[in-house]
Amino acid sequence: MAVEINSLSSSNLKGTGDSGLVTRSGLPGGKRSATSTTSTRKDRFDMTGSAGKLLELEARIAQMPIVDAQKVEAVQKALATGSFTIDPQTAADKMLAMELTLP
Length: 103
What we know:
The chain is mainly α. The protein has 3 helices and no strands. The model has no long low-confidence stretch (mean pLDDT 76).
């Protein structure tokens, strides 16, 4: 079964065996070439500045509370004192807008 990713089929890959797998030596069947030497090369990963910023923002967002505690406290106080008012037209408009966004 051929797998194509971005118009590159497995037949275009170099250094693959019959199974389509590349062995550690990079040659089909795990054979080593006469000039092959064992190296201690380590994999390396470099992160761009943008990727680092995204990770930092993700960590900061994860630490933020899901609920706005100050807003909840203000509504609770307004309910307790009887000063909480609801505009029926605004509430209906927001409910309709939310309903229209649903699939």
